[in-house]
Amino acid sequence: MAMDDTLRSFMDKFKIPDLSEMDWKGSTDGLRQSFYRASRSVERDLPDLAEISNLIVDGADGPLKARLYVPFAAGVAPAPAIVFFHGGGFVLGDIDTHDVLCRRLAASARCRVLSVDYRLAPEHRFPAAHLDALAAWEWATQRNNILGFDPDRIAVAGDSAGGNLSAFIAQEAGRSGALMPAFQLLLYPLVQFVDIRAKRMSFQEGGFFISPNLFDYFRDNYIERETDRMDPRVSPLFASDDDFAGLAPTHLVLCGWDPLKDEGKAYAAKLAAHGVPVTIKEHPGMVHGFMNMTGVSVPARKAIEEAGLVVGKALGARD
Question: CA angle, 160 as apex, 155 and 163 as ends, to 5°?
Fold first, then answer.
């Protein structure tokens, strides 16, 4: 299927800078600015929510910024909730770049959403983001949490690198005995951080939010030692069989024009092989990161709504 024409035009307008023409700090700053411009949008038809509030949550090495979204249909506390981690290769992104996505997800799922602003590379290298995600998860799932979450009905969710953190939390819960998420919503997740250059891909597959150059750039800024690339914390696809047993039911959203699509399917297959209930929704004409393009793409909005329905039903927030 051909790439969505609206997304193609948008991608041409917001071209990611050429890393070869920028120094180290300039590359990081330039990428962050481009990602912010491409991800932020003003949408007049955003769903109204009962509450949107900024707060502080626990990180592994100090407090982290976070944002709570409470839809009108969230129900009386303790209620179902979603802990969300943004994408951006562990180098880009924050709670603002994914604000619209979280608003739409909360409204569709009819669940509270907590978006966590974990530490980024290269200032903070592996496993800083993973340790932050785990600390925030443990904070949010406490029985006496102040957010109105039902600890037995909390999903973990994220896109790209955030999907990586979500998969890590589920696997780590199985390894450590921590509270297992009730559900996993993995949006075009990064499930291996070793290499994509060996893959055959079209120009369209490697041209915007992820490409071989960007993949290497993100990986090398976050992971200092080459031997850590296979660490199951950052490459959950390569975790042992024991780490897949007993994981939470999972829904994956994949894109037709995404070099990470095959790994997503492989991860789903491993989950299913170990008895984990898993479903996949593939959007053939979409690119990696398309849920950040709701300002120009109606299908992107519908895709978030569909994903919200899935997780909302899984948590008992929707019929």
Answer: 25
Q: Read off the pLDDT of residues 249-307 as tens digits, 9 standing for 90 and up.
A: 999 999 998 999 999 999 999 999 999 999 999 999 998 999 999 998 999 999 999 99
Q: Active-site positions?
A: 160, 258, 288
| CA neighbor of 278 nearest in space, from 232, 239, 236, 244 | 244
Distance CA 31, CA 19 (A): 9
Residues 279 and 251 sit within 8 Å (Cβ to Cβ):
yes
Task: State if pTM tops 0.85.
Answer: yes
SS (H, E, C) 129-196: HHHHHHHHHHHHCCCCCCCCEEEEEEEEEEECHHHHHHHHHHHHHHHHCCCCCCEEEEECCCCCCCCC
* Domains of the chain in sequence order: 5-314 (3.40.50.1820)
